[in-house]
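Q: Can someone sanity-check these two? First one:
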Amino acid sequence: MSEEQKRLLEQSLWAIADLLRGRMNADEYKNYVLGFIFLKYLSERQEVYADDELLKRDNIKYADLINENDENEEIISLVKQQSIENKGFFLKPNQLFSYIVKKGNKEFGSDNFIVEDLKNVLNSIEQNTIGQESEEDFIGLFEDVDLSSAKLGKTEKEKNDIVIEILSRLNRIDFNLTDAKSDVLGDAYEYLIGQFAAGAGKKGGEFYTPSQVSRILSQIVTAGKDKIKSVYDPTCGSGSLLIRVKDYADVSEIYGQELNRTTYNLARMNMLLHGINYTKFHIRQGDALTDDHFPDLKAEAVVANPPFSAKWKGDLNPLFKTDERFNKYGALAPKDKADYAFATHMIHHLADNGVMAIVLPHGVLFRGGAEEKIRRYIIETLNYLDAVIGLTPNLFYGATIPVCIMVFSKCRKEDDKILFIDASKEFEKGKNQNRLTDDNIKKIVETYKNKKGIDKFSRLVGSREIKENDYNLNISRYIDTFEEAKSIDLVSVSKEIKKLESEETEINEEIAGYCRELGISAPFHSEITKANEV
């Protein structure tokens, strides 16, 4: 997508968001905007699939099969069967987005009330998947699009008018689904999720990882690979991080889990909007620590940005003490800091040839107690820690603290050293948040891939040195970032001071002369004024 296309698309989408912005907050209106975009996507995907793959030979346009007769019903029935089997969903011709918009704009008569029609369409999409392979990927997708909400309008007419306006504006946007190489809609959806995350403040960090950080994680876990069998994120949010991995390698299967129900819906929509077939992704709802939906999964790539220092049941749940995800490290992660619970959960799900990159708060590098025991076991016994990358503060929505990326690999050699990278100065300051530039990202990723030491930026550290530091991974212990103060030429400074003093004396004499002529006192008390007073 060109920059001009992106600009026009962003303008259109934000104009739609503006219609709702005064009625509800960003966290609420994102559900309507993204939900309607997703409906338009499904509708256009249904139409393109029917026209280009099922009905092209008969020169029939799917949208024209509106009239209810036996011949049309038979064709629609065949389209339904193929659509659900291959695409996972189905829409009738009179349920298409374009048809609903036309009705809203009174092209079929004076009755332009479409809210009930829209409710039926959203319900029908889910109902058609019940009992099908795609049921778990579509059920409940539109539950956050509340068309009965009083926030849309006080009367049914007000609600209807605002919905018509939103759908009509969306209908003018060409998502270019016939171009297999185009991802206009996917790009737009990603952009909107990012903007909504920014507007949602702290809540935004719960469902979106900034794209610059996603790019680093994705390039790390795919380094040296063109194909990845599977990728997994146990706290997948809107799924953007999982999708980003596909930019750098051909991924066969995607696995993700998300606790928040609304965000879980966003993630499934995001997968489909990026053209990922429902058979290729497996997104489940629930707490990965207490309700692991993929107990047997061993993923070749694992990425995550879990909630920082979240609370978990820890020692309060005796089952965790026998859970193989947590019980071999000599201690459980503290109940008020689940960071290492997520890390060890992910290590458990990492394949023997896999690489894992996880974003964590800096405290995981040096905190004592149970976390120190877990760090020690990972480094000394397992030898899985591959790199520690320190990032600048204020990169994430709602989190101003500095964070780090910890990289783990199950295929390290016994004598491998751990790479430390201090990228805390690699950023561009923004209005509300810092951001990483393309050059910043490239420097970090290339340093990791090449495992090279760069003065005051990166260093390979052996296990003996880490042991001597009691497994404290604080980056400043291993990379000297001290900048020597520039030497000062005191002789030159002295000469400069004398010169300035001489200039000051001349100026003061001149001012004192003006003051004598005016018959007023000088605005300073110096040797000159003393002499004049005498």
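And here is the second, same format, sequence then tokens:
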Amino acid sequence: MKNKKSQSDMSSFKVLSRLLRFTKPYTFYLVFTLISSVVSACATLYAPVLIGQAVDYIIDINNVDFDKILPIIIQLIIVVLTGAAFQWFMGYCTNILTQRTVRDLRVTAFNKLEKVPLKYIDTTPHGDIISRVVTDIDTISDGLLQGFQQLFTGVVTIVGTLCFMISINVSIALVVILITPVSLFVASTIARLCSKKFKEQAQLRGKVTALAEEYIGNQKVVKAFCYEDKTEQEFENLNSELYTVGVKAQFYSALTNPSTRFVNGLVYAGVGIFGAMNAIGGGISVGQLSCFLSYANQYTKPFNEISGVITELQSAFASARRIFAMIDSEDEVSDAGNKVLTDVKGNVRLDDVSFSYLPDRPLIQHLSLDVKQGQQIAIVGPTGCGKTTIINLLMRFYDTVEGSISVDGNNIKDVTRDSLRLNYGMVLQETWIFKGTVKENIAYGKPDATDEEIINAAKAAHCHSFIKRLKNGYDTVISDNSGISQGQKQLLCIARVMLTMPPMLILDEATSSIDTRTELKIQKAFAAMTKGKTSFIVAHRLSTIKGADSILVMDKGKIVEIGNHEELLAKGGFYAELYNSQFKKT
């Protein structure tokens, strides 16, 4: 919480400074952007000098010195073309710089999601994470593009204009300089108002995305419970809140342009009045006065442009704070050493293990278990007793709070996560199919598998027949929403594990979406697959674990009974009660 708060309070300067760090690999484009900006601004500022010189050669009616004006016109054309060329080149470099910087930022953000502990993914709305990686980074892209172009050109123009004006007449230049703080005060005041509202807008946008993702992904449940009206109302309330904050943010940002234009009018009027008095007194020529009036406009223009992109910049900074909050979130605890598990037999030991997701809500307490190679351990118990939590601890998705877990005598905290997880084959109740061919989905854990190996795994998982009925067989492109049933998805997930054949297996309600007839076949396949392998089976249907070597009966995070099916039934205890509740006649 402290980290999140500090990131949300990060100043705009720190945000900009951190964003600029991502531009370091593209310093070449940044340097040429600056050079192009300077050349373009100098060319633009030199044009009024030439125009002023030409005006001084227009003395009276029928008294124009064309011989001296013509070379000035040629110079003016060259200066204008040069300024335009470097303006284009600056835009080209800025676009490359921005897009590549944003690309790296998006890669960094996505890679971070691979490093955060599962707790972060479990406790953060998925829609909000998607909003950060996609929408917020697009907002940063727009803000950076506008910011680089306007800030570079604006600063150079302001400094250059002041230098040119001072070189012509110091006293008139002082008029401009004295009014400048008013423009800066107006712009900074509005910027502060905008910053707060755009921060709120970015947060609400993430909430709207999260809510939409949640309800769209679970539309069947929404319709089944006739929750459409309440869903619409909930979305409308949040969307209305976003609308209100968005209107205020846009209103404050819209004040910038007219406010700065008013200040610009003061500058122009001050230069015109004071300059005219100087021209009457012979202090400057009419051409120099026209040059000063042009500079008065050019000097104030950058303030208009910079203030005009305050909307994009403040919105970009608000989005950047959300991105950096995610990037700076705590990483998964790193591997304690580089030890790699090899030649795993499958002896697993849990020694006085305690764990809780929340500190004030104990779950697993002082759990000890000794599993020998090749044993089949079933874990049963009521919902919320800690069955799936044990799986999370075995796979080291979460680390134990107390106690230790070892594989073949190696504490799993002392070995690399990759080597630990590669020695487990896991089939979960929740299926996951990515967009790709059937062949690619089955070979997810073994990309170099041959076609023959893939087909044999599919046959073992009893999904070969339905795959052959697909339009292109094993080359059919499927996805999580491609129309195949939940049971077929689960069969493909089982085939993945049957292809890799690791020494240890975890089956968490692996047949929950499969019909009874197919389940019997799968159980035979599992029996062949688990032979000689250590396996952990989480089951609600107790008929599926009758043949387990040992059944752990859990309740409130503790093992209350342990034994095989016959022994536990004979005890007439908690297991017998669970079993009879499923099979007793009514």
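A (reply): Looked at the second one. The chain is about 65% helix and 10% strand. The longest strand covers residues 348-355.
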